[in-house]
C-alpha cells in the first residue's frame, strides 16, 4: 500500500499473543518495519540517481533484499497486531532524500551511506536479539530467526559498501557519523510514535 501501509490480506496467520511481552514485541516490530521501509526508500533514492551506472545492479540487489525484509515485517505487523509508526510518511521522504543525496556524491557516497545505515541497523538488530534471548528464546523463536537472518543480510550490505570504496567517499567520517546519528534518532522515534 502507498506509504508503507499494511494490508490485512498480506498475512492470514495470526500469532497467539498469550504469554508474550506485548510492549517489547510491539516496539521491536514497529521499529523494524519502519527501518526496513526507510532502507527500501534509501535504495530507491540511490537507484533514481545511480540505477544506470556500473553500481546500479549492486544497489538493485540490496534493494531487492530490503523489499523482502519489508514484506516480512508487513506480515508481522498484522500477525502480531502491531500499530505501525505514524512517521512512515516522513521516513518515505527522508529515506529517498538520503539515498538520492548520498548517490549525488557518486558511487562512493552511496556506499558510504550504505555502510553507515547497515552498521547502525545490524547493531540495533543485535540489541533486539539480546532482548528476546533474555525474555525467552523458545517463545520468540520465529521472530529471532527473522531478525538474525535480516541482521546477516544487513552485515552483507555493509561489507558490500566497504568493498565498493565507501571509505574513499568525500568527508566519509563526517557523513557516516551524521547518518548514524540520524539512524539513532529514527530508531528512538519509531519505537515510540
UniProtKB/TrEMBL annotation:
Pfam families: COQ7. Pathway: Cofactor biosynthesis; ubiquinone biosynthesis. One of its GO terms (biological process) is regulation of gene expression. One of its GO terms (cellular component) is nucleus. Keywords: Iron, Membrane, Metal-binding, Monooxygenase, Oxidoreductase, Ubiquinone biosynthesis. The keyword Iron applies. GO terms for molecular function: 3-demethoxyubiquinol 3-hydroxylase activity; metal ion binding. CDD domains: DMQH. This is COQ7 protein. It comes from Tricholaema leucomelas (pied barbet). The gene is Coq7.
